[in-house]
Amino acid sequence: MIKNRLSIILGEKRIKFHEIIKLTGISRKTLYNIYNDKTQGIEFSTLDKLCFALDCTPNDLFRYVPDDTPDKHLYE
């Protein structure tokens, strides 16, 4: 599964949540959902705004974490 590192990057750069909203122009709801890993995907334009504001790459924002839980439907 893909996990985002937005909260970690904001902490490392000492950027407050309300500041990233102002820097990017991304809605509070969208950023909240990204920050809390409650999204199924992200628009390229949103990703571009985050990378520009945080001076980072998409690779910095996301990490692949293997999902050790096998899918049940594969074994039924």
Automatic annotation (TrEMBL):
Record-linked PROSITE patterns: HTH_CROC1
Q: What sequence ranges are listed for the domain HTH cro/C1-type?
A: 22-61
Q: Which SUPFAM superfamilies match?
A: lambda repressor-like DNA-binding domains
Pfam families recorded for this chain?
HTH_26
A single GO molecular function, which one?
DNA binding
Report which superkingdom the organism of origin falls in: Bacteria
State what protein this is by name.
Helix-turn-helix transcriptional regulator
